[in-house]
Design goal:
The complex is a heterodimer of chains A (321) and B (293).
Chain A (H helix, E strand, L loop, with lengths): L2 H13 L2 H34 L17 H8 L1 H34 L4 H13 L2 H11 L6 H15 L19 H26 L3 H9 L4 H29 L3 H6 L14 H11 L3 H27 L5
Helix pairs in contact in A: 4-8, 4-10, 5-8, 8-10, 10-13, 12-13
Chain B lengths: L1 H15 L1 H37 L19 H9 L2 H32 L5 H10 L5 H15 L5 H5 L6 H12 L3 H9 L4 H9 L4 H17 L2 H6 L8 H11 L4 H21 L1 H14 L1
The chains are: A mainly alpha (321), B mainly alpha (293).
């Protein structure tokens, strides 16, 4: 490095104030991430809106503008209606059930001291295991002819016949092959897998509530239910809202489990387990209707946006005691 | 009212003599243990049943036997020789490791810049990144696929990797962590002549260890379990990840449930082992991001 270029550099550096220099470095550090977010996150999201307004063709020049035609098709398409209804049902079943069970288990865990960590780990384990493999395991357990559930039902049958009480017998079920039972059966798997998440965050939330609040309420003569209703629930409110939003968004995006639990009849029987995400996948990559599938994802986006906005309103509201 | 006063007396007594409280709670504690144990059995049972089924042979897996009469590893050997499972495992490992490295570096860097550097347009950039959290993956996979087809990324590692390089969630998480560090720390470093990048690497990063640990674990598990995008972009058998591989193999296996349970075990057991080792860090990470994040 010659003395001349060194002094030149010093003079350019001197021309930048300290805050300008910091801003230059900030943008330098952000360069790669900003390019990433622009091309891999923003542009594709906008592209989905655009694709939903055109018929699909590999060559962009041959895509025909059709306006809101795909959205109109969704209004009348019975399979889309089925997928939307199922997806909302998944949310309506799994969210309250996993929140209630998660809260119950967290409260029970708080009541014990020895082994709390181990119980917590056991409940949490399914949450991080791959949903694809989990779905195959449950699909096997639900198997009509050889599954463990129907075997247990038959053993129970033998048992109650043996003790002379056959009216207690239950019939074997078709589970995933039964249009009425299939969706609840899948919902059980989702609850089983997500429960641990709620348990962990509820337990942490409960441990964050200062003991003195309970003691003060108890001195005022509050019974256990009142303690739960007027101390635990309000102070746990932010965690509850967070859990509701996360599980609702997860339910709206269900895909891995639905595909794998009934692999030979994905979304079946009679589309009764079909979710919006699977419907999108089938339309896009099974029938090459990428424009229509893009329109379906726009609807999914609007649903998730609405839930996020409701969450923002709920968390900004003051807690009621 | 009499009961009111008596209850107060009892509570005072209880606080003075804790032994009596413990004895009074004993029944409830037993009930809690009983309920928790029953629940734990239900949580563990599918894993146990999966393992038991995987150790049976083709005939016994369809019989009413609960425990295999003869434990056999034949299903595992058959799956390992009939499929490209080792390759899928390697693919999953490559994608998860590279993505986790990228997530840790870039999310920390962007989080640091947004939390502790001063520059015009900061809020706009933060809100823009935050807004990407509301866009579901489902909405992005179609344009990603169109893009990948155009640039020849289909069926490549880059194709599997690129969507997960910098998740907005990670940026948000790391920003929260850097916000807890005092600004003076970095200003002092600046006065001492530490470079801007040095401030991030040498002063900032070592102080956000718990955040990095949580983020790294989530990035790894998330990538390891990912299904939708790898299913779309991996088209040949040797580019599949573990979830895609086992889904497509199981789909062809028909009623060979001993083989299907062996593949499921091979996908689940490594995750469970990692979980048992890092149990505390993983659960603390969930708490960190779930409750405080």
């Amino acid at each position: 490095m010659t003395g001349q270029s060194g002094s030149q550099r010093r003079s350019t550096r001197a021309r930048l104030t300290l805050s300008q220099r910091e801003a230059v470095y900030a943008y330098l550090f952000l360069l790669v991430p900003l390019v990433f977010f622009a091309t891999i996150r923003f542009w594709p999201a906008i592209q989905s809106f655009r694709l939903s307004l055109f018929t699909w063709h590999v060559d962009p020049a041959r895509r025909v503008f059709i306006g809101a035609q795909y959205y109109q098709e969704m209004l009348t398409n019975p399979v889309f209606h089925r997928a939307l209804t199922n997806t909302l049902l998944y949310a309506l079943i799994t969210v309250p059930a996993s929140i209630a069970l998660g809260l119950l288990i967290a409260i029970l865990l708080q009541a014990i001291t020895t082994g709390r960590g181990w119980y917590r780990a056991i409940y949490f384990a399914p949450y991080i295991t791959p949903a694809v493999a989990i779905a195959w395991v449950w699909g096997w357990m639900y198997n009509v002819n050889f599954g463990i559930f129907n075997r247990l039902i038959l053993s129970w049958w033998d048992f109650v016949e043996g003790i002379g009480a056959p009216w207690l017998a239950i019939d074997p079920q078709r589970f995933l092959r039964d249009p009425e039972l299939a969706l609840p059966a899948v919902a059980v798997v989702i609850i089983w897998q997500q429960l641990g998440f709620q348990v962990v965050i509820f337990l942490a939330g409960l441990q964050g509530i200062p003991r003195v609040y309970y003691e003060a309420a108890r001195i005022d003569g509050a019974n256990p239910w009142q303690l739960f209703r007027h101390v635990t629930i309000p102070l746990l409110n932010p965690v509850l809202v967070f859990a509701v939003v996360i599980t609702t968004i997860n339910a709206l995006q269900l895909f891995d489990q639905i595909v794998n639990i009934n692999f030979t009849d994905q979304g079946g029987p009679l589309n009764r387990t079909l979710s919006i995400a699977l419907y999108m996948y089938q339309e896009a990559f099974g029938r090459a209707r990428l424009g229509y599938a893009a329109a379906v994802t726009v609807v999914l986006f609007v649903l998730i946006l609405a839930i996020t906005l409701i969450q923002l309103r709920l968390t900004q509201r003051r807690v009621e005691y | 009212m009499l009961p009111e006063g008596r209850r107060l007396r009892q509570d005072l007594d209880a606080s003075v003599r804790p032994v009596r409280v413990r004895r009074r709670l004993n029944g409830w504690t037993l009930l809690a243990y009983a309920l928790l144990s029953a629940g734990a059995v239900l949580m563990v049972f599918p894993f146990v049943w999966m393992l038991l089924s995987s150790f049976k042979d083709a005939r016994e897996v369809l019989s009413p036997a609960i425990v295999p009469s003869r434990f056999t590893l034949a299903s595992y050997i058959e799956v390992l020789t009939r499929t490209a499972f080792p390759r899928w495992f390697l693919n999953s490992l490559i994608v998860a490791v590279l993505n986790t490295a990228s997530v840790l570096f870039f999310c920390a860097l962007v989080g640091y810049v947004l939390a502790r550097m001063r520059f015009p347009g900061k809020n706009l950039i933060f809100i823009a990144i935050l807004s990407t959290l509301m866009v579901p993956t489902e909405m992005l996979v179609i344009p990603w696929f169109v893009m990948s087809a155009q640039f020849g990324w289909v069926d490549t590692y880059w194709g599997l990797l690129f969507p997960g390089l910098i998740p907005g969630f990670g940026v948000f998480l790391m920003r929260q962590f850097f916000l807890t560090l005092p600004r003076d720390l970095f200003d002092a470093g600046r006065i001492d002549g530490v470079s801007e990048f040095g401030l991030f690497i040498r002063i900032g990063l070592p102080l956000v260890g718990p955040g990095l640990a949580a983020l790294g674990i989530f990035a790894f598990i998330g990538n390891w379990n990912a299904f939708l995008w790898p299913l779309i972009v991996a088209q040949s058998a040797h580019m599949r990840t573990v979830p895609v591989g086992i889904a497509l193999f199981s789909g062809e296996a028909g009623s060979a449930w001993h083989l299907i349970m062996a593949t499921s075990s091979m996908a689940i057991i490594p995750v469970l082992i990692v979980f048992i080792i890092f149990q505390r860090q993983i659960i603390e990470g969930v708490v960190l991001t779930g409750v405080k994040g």
